[in-house]
Write a structure and sequence with these properties.
Largest interface: A-B, 34 and 35 residues
CATH superfamily of chain B: P-loop containing nucleotide triphosphate hydrolases
Largest sheet of chain B: 8 strands, mixed
Oligomer: heterodimer
Number of strands of chain A: 8
Number of strands of chain B: 8
CATH superfamily of the largest domain in chain A: Tetratricopeptide repeat domain
Order of helices and strands of chain A: HHHHHHHHHEHEHEEEHEEE
Structural class of chain A: alpha+beta
CATH architecture of chain B: 3-Layer(aba) Sandwich
Strand order of the largest sheet of chain A: 3-4-5-8-7-6
Radius of gyration of chain B: 16 Å
Strand content of chain A: 15-25%
CATH topology of chain B: Rossmann fold
Chain lengths: 335, 204
Amino acid sequence: MDPKDQVISLLKEADLYQQQGLLNEAKERYKKATKILKANTGIKNGQELIASIVKKVVDLNQKINQINKATSKPTVSNKKQDLIKQLFAGAGEKDDASNRLEGAIALAKFGQFDRALEEFERLLDVEAVRVAAAKNIARCHLEVNALEDAASCFDRWVGDDRFTSAQLDKIRFFLKGRFNKLGFDRELYQREETVSDEDIQALEMEPAVTESSQDAGHVPLTNTQPAALEDMELPEEDEFLDINSVGIQLRSGSQKGRMIEFDVSFQTGNSINLIISSKESALLNELEKGTELKDMQFFSPIAILNGSGVVTAKTQIKSGPKEGDYSLDITILTT
Amino acid sequence: MATFNFKKREIECKIVYYGPGRCGKTTNLEYIFKTYKKQIAGEMVSIDTEGDRTLFFDFLPMGLGKIKGCDVKVQLYTVPGQVQYSSTRKLVLKEVDGLVFVADSLEVRREKNMLSLKDLHENLKSYGTSIFKVPLVMQYNKRDLEEEGIPLMPIEKMDHDLNRQLKAPYFSASAIKGQGVPQTITECLKLTLLNLQKQLKWAK
């Protein structure tokens, strides 16, 4: 093809690619055209054409840089956040708190952290999802690298009567694990418990614990520990990932092979708890204490793992918003 | 995953338009929104950047009326095509019931098509499903650019690149002109609803 015709063809392509939003492809064509023009100085108005192409490439580079620099999850309007919450809250009938939790998680996954935090804060009032909401508040702060904010939230919860000590322990283990992974050395406060006469009698039989200086009601974690807590282990570095949800495969029946995903209500080390709706009768019939689950999937924020687990407890919930549903404890065997 | 309300005889399913950036996914939905007013059950929502690139997703709800005694509602989504929005693509793809893979017929986008299909395959795998098990239709878009003298891949080449193992139904299209768009969505809906009928045995 005649060099001039080649240039015309390349410029036409470049212009079209630019219209299509294919900026890198357009840039490539402009560069090829420039090369041909430089190699064929006899082409009429060649220098002017080159100058014009250079200007277009400069403009293209600016647009490309703009796109590349744009954050991948900017904050969107309230209306669009409402839509995200509604569309990605998960399928199936759940109680209101579960739906609200899933909606808030969806917001966080789409990077709408401020709105997600508002939603999670409201969910702290709901007993059934309080720990999950608290962990997700911490996750939101961790996601934006606000580790001190995550720790401050926990310190605030220590003095918050809504949280039981058991709930705080779960949240603390989660946070400590994350902080260890991130190399963030920050103590987390521990609630000073009100001790009954029976507790005093029981403690008198144990070795004395060291007293430490303290703010009112707050005691640094590492110094004084009631006897019961000394037996708990903090997550070691590189121990179990925080598991957000698990997939369990049906092994029999008309839907054999179907993978169903459940959110993890809470996790302690390699033990996770799920709430399974009473409507999932096919699955519930398969899950009894001692049942080994092969081909499980474990979904964490940074990886999806395949592995196996065993059902260690299955209890029907007798009261509250999830009455009739089942609480299932699973110990992860392999990942 | 489709939801089926036995009491109300209502079924709701999700179809996702997938493909590389700038291939015409949003244009497909815009055409459907403009053309099928009777079936559209709400507004088309686009969460996009200033102007034209899909940032999170496009969403279009449709109602197909009664089919075999059930009220069928469909949610159409598109995913963002740019590489940096990978995690968002995965979120939108969750619990999908039917797929349209929109491929760009421009020769220069050949590799992007294949990478996008691979991305789809891996995202489905991460949800424990397979691209071979989800109802899928291929659309080879931008065929109108042939008239402009722009190098396009022949349909046979695109089908060989993208579809030789999947063997999904495919349609040539020019989404900007509306050509091939109705055929694509109709076929995808047909395959999706057949699959759901099989899974849920809803007609019985």
